[in-house]
Amino acid sequence: MACSLPLHAPFSSSPRILSYRPAPRTLPLFRRGLRVPYHRSPSPPRALPDVAAGAVAGIRDALADAFLTSPPTWRSAAASNLAVFVSGSPLLLSGLSASGFAAAYLLGTLTWRAFGAQGFLLVVAYFVVGTAVTKLRIRQKEALGVAEKRGGRRGPGSVIGSSAAGCVCALLSIYHAGGTASSELWRLGFVASFCTKLSDTVSSEIGKAFGRTTIGTW
């Protein structure tokens, strides 16, 4: 009896498409020799950069409003002065002690409130030039015993003494003493006080650095 076997298996009309799925990563467990699947946790949402960017934008807008406020208020003057002091703290601390730094901040806030950025820049120029001539040949001045204390870093007494007349003019201008007619007088007195003090500081410090005999207040 003849038996016929099919030489080829019947093909289906539609071919089967096989999909490949990679096996999950496994980490070995040394206890009992087991292996368990390890799935990577999804990364957290990146919300922190957005929050930081929003905070920076808010600070920038607040500082812009403070610098552009005209006429200045006590709040805008304090904010503007704080921004300048934070950015310029290395230079300020090189010429001021810690208590002198605090006194200079009060002086800067008062100046900005009274005369705006222009008056504040005058005080900055006074500080930069006065610190430069004070540091001039500081070792020689210390050897002669005529240098400022604390390596030329000025304390609150020096800051207040240098700015006393200017502070009086600033307060008189803020509270409109004498009316509108006297406003320019207080501004002129403020400028004259710092120019006079700066000329005295420059002449005294240069004299102590290069002169043989100096007469000054130190």
UniProtKB/TrEMBL annotation:
Spans through the membrane: 82-107, 119-138, 159-178
Membrane topology of this protein: Multi-pass membrane protein
InterPro entries attached to this UniProt entry: DUF92_TMEM19 (IPR002794)
Places the protein is found: Membrane
A Gene Ontology cellular-component term: membrane
Keywords: Membrane, Transmembrane, Transmembrane helix
Family designation: Belongs to the TMEM19 family.
The protein, known as: Protein VTE6 chloroplastic
Native source species: Zea mays
